[in-house]
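Input sequence (111 aa), recorded before submission:
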Amino acid sequence: MATLETQYQNYLKENPTSKLTYDEWMEQIWTSRITNFKNQNLIEREIDFKKTLTDISTRLPTVQYDNGDISDIGNEIGYTIGSILENMTQEEIGDFIRGFRHGVSLTNGTH
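Predicted structure, token format:
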């Protein structure tokens, strides 16, 4: 499997008039994947998007321990999502991680 950088270089070769930067190209891919995820995976799984968000927000305040670190927060989110979206594929996990990174980038100025 080619790296994203290699895929981007191949895209530029196939689209020589493209003005997309690597980041813009990644955003385009990300948007396409999110649309695909929303339109296929949630529909195929027959999952209510709003209910999934509610379930996540309801579970997190019930965490039983008082002390933890950022990895514990990640663990709780992963456990909750994995419980709701059972048998997630590696692609779905990758999509979630990309979404997480994208969300953080919007808040920390690296977007």
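Checked by second reader. The chain is about 70% helix and 0% strand.
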